[in-house]
Amino acid sequence: MDMIKIIKPGLFTTIQDRGRIGYQKYGIPVSGAMDDFAFRVANILVENEEYEAVLESTFIGPSIEIGFDGFIAITGANMSPKLNGNAVPMWRSIEVHKGDLLTLSGALEGVRSYIAFGGGIIVPEIMKSKSTYVRASLGGYKGRKLIEGDEIPVDVAKSKAKTTRYLSKVYIPRYSKRNVVRVVLGPQDDHFTPEAIDTFLNSEYKITAEADRMGYRLEGPKLAHAKSPDIISDGIVFGSVQVPGHGLPIVMMADRQTTGGYAKIATVIWPDLSLLAQMGPGDTVRFKKVSIEQSQELL
Description:
The chain is mainly beta. 11% of the residues lie in helices and 33% in strands.
């Protein structure tokens, strides 16, 4: 069977696809790739279905022994990828051969890298998804992050990749440590004073060390509630900005819980979630209000 072998796992490498869509009503988090754009482009470059499972690496990438002849693609954060010790380009398909060694190191720009394999990764689907949700030991490879010695099958026979494909430089994102992230206010912006909303939209917030696939806690000016910070628990989406009683925002990410009881001042729009997913502790963000119509047009 064609497969890859994990020689070094990196800091936090998991299998992710688009996530478990439609199961939040049963209490199952969506999970899935944090950076939707980089994830989908990686698959397109190797001619996979765009939501096929890939490897997502955070901060420090893995070393992988390639056990097949075929194609791979690497997108997202620049982790200085090398094949057999030689630098290889990102954002394009790369021909590989059995016995090759792919190595990624620490991220130079951005936080998360994506590695797609022509034909796709073979792991069981749980609730129509191969995504790993580590907190519940669900999905992916044995429900956990990858470790040294893991061998993961690749469906090379299904691969459609034949020649090198690349993404034009004009479309390749640049990852900054300071970004403006666009939001739609609500759904509970009426729980905050006008001054709090003004502060939220005109202040800089720093991502704290408490930032992972579940959520990003932010540090900056506190936001005053006009009503109780608590609400009757309702659904949480990727990008919901909760503000508990302490007044500091928390942006919910891919592994968020399904419901929450804190008022949500705003929601990050979908196109900017990929930007946020490539930011880490110490990076700073400012929020800009857009309308629902504008967010749909941007999407």
